[in-house]
Amino acid sequence: MLQKEYGINDVVEMKKAHPCGTNAWKIIRLGMDIRIKCTGCGHSILMPRQEFNKKMKKVLIKGEEE
Prior knowledge:
The protein has a 5-stranded antiparallel β-sheet with strand order 4-3-2-1-5. Helices cover 11% and strands 41% of the residues. By secondary structure, it is mainly β. The chain has 1 helix and 5 strands, in the order ββββαβ. Strand 3 and strand 4 (44-48) form a beta hairpin. The protein has one domain (11-61). It starts with 10 loop residues before the first strand and ends in a 5-residue tail after the last strand.
């Protein structure tokens, strides 16, 4: 399987849009689970890495590592 490259502070596009109408999410935590924050309304969700890999389409903006 092709591994998608993403890191903390990257803005990614998901397959399904958020109910607020935005499809861009910022990665704010990486680990076994990944926490992403909606760039539109600020809602954040935590999902397992395996589920995230299935639902992510592409990286829109590469974030700067702190």
